[in-house]
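It would be a great kindness if you could assist me with a short task in structural biology. The matter concerns a single protein, recorded as an amino acid sequence and a row of C-alpha cells. Could you please explain, in whatever detail you think fit, how the C-alpha cells follow from the sequence? Thank you for your consideration; the sequence and its C-alpha cells are set out here:
___
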Amino acid sequence: METLTHVVKLPLGKVVVALNRAGLELADRGGFEVHWAEGVANALTHEEYRSVVKAHLRDVHKKQTGQEPPSITLNLASHQVMDDITGWSKLNAVQLSQQYKL
C-alpha cells in the first residue's frame, strides 16, 4: 500500500500526515508519521481527512482479505487513527509553543 501524505487542520494547528496503515485492528495502531506543517495555506478538515483514512483502511482490508470490511470496524478504525493523530498534536503542542513562542 502506498503512503498517503496530506496536510490536516487540527485544533492545535496544521500537521502533515504520512499514512501507511497495515490493518484495521487495534494491534495495528500506528502506521503514520506526523509533523507540524509550516507555511501551508490549504489543509483538509478533520472530517475530510477521516474520509481519506477510511478509504485507505478499506483498501488495506480489501487487499488483505479480498472482502469489504465491516462498516463498524472501518468506522472505529478510522476514528482511532484520527484520535491518535490528535493525541500526537496534544503531546507535541509544547514543542510548537516553544518554536513559535506562544
